[in-house]
Target: Glutamine--fructose-6-phosphate aminotransferase [isomerizing]
Amino acid sequence: SKGTYEFYMLKEIDEQPGVMRRLSQDYLDENGEPLVDQKIVDAVANADRIYIFAAGTSYHAGLVGKDLFEKYTGIPTEVGYASEAGYHFPIMSKRPLFIFLSQSGETADSRVVLKEANKRGITSLTMTNVEGSTLSREADFTMLLKAGPEIAVASTKAYTAQIALQAILAKAVGEKLANQDAKDFDLKHQLALAAEGIQEIVDGKERFAELAKKYLIASRNAFYIGRGIDHAVALEGALKLKEVSYIQTEGFAAAELKHGTISLIEDGTPVIALINDPVTADLTRGNIQEVTSRGASVITIVGKQFAKENDDVVLPDLNYYLSPLLTVVPTQLLAYYASKEKGLDVDKPRNLAKSVTVE
Ligand code: M6R
Model:
């Protein structure tokens, strides 16, 4: 039940620290070693390429998963929209392994890809929140997200659970492959930091109500920008905001705006900039300058180590590859408050259903 909450979306945002702790407890032993079914670890470790398929927010979690798998296992990883791959099947490597990310486990677009994979004898793993769901039953293996029921149409805690679970699997597989980065990856500690960091952000949620009121609700459009892993979060932040607030929002690789889209920046256009990537932090600052000088109202969401005096939101420290676990939370809260301030039904945006069982 919603308890004292007006909407499930906020309840589910608030539950994320608990989800991080549960995943750590259930999938990592007291020494931080992954507790993942050995058959799954072997199947993934044997692959020469990982293919992740999903839709919507789960697809965005897959984009983060790509970086995690490549960093900690060294296995090249591709991410595709299930809806596209189903009818334009990608060229396969010799030993492909498919991962399906799906909160509901019922997404029709993903089922099409899995059917084709089964026809071709490709090994598959479903990461889902729903035990016994269709994608779980039809795949060779399942790993559960353990996020608890997600009721709001806008997905929040399933996204962070998918990232944490992919990190756990990446560490398990990487260790099996004797990957040094995987061995050095103190995931138990990092997930504890993530839980604390998310808690700190949600404890300060009033700030996001203010920012949403000041910058977003009167605007008809908005942009999220970021580079590296922040680009993936920019896409997710944009989906969340447009989905529940009806403010048309696009996520961009920060430097791409100037190749066309910057012509949409007017006085007061909200641009939300994400900075966690050490390699490109200064370059993103340059992109902020470009839009500011054309009138944009910029909100900065920045990892502590990159923070400057005037940044709007400063995120606690976390491993770069897990930084989306923190960065996404302000984007969820901005979306929530923008929708709520506009008087919309936050949990049930128009035209949408919780799980999309048609192609
Ligand atoms: O249940 P699934 O994770 O397969 O659902 C995929 C998308 O339909 C879902 O993430 C959708 O994009 C959400 N409404 C986004 O908040």
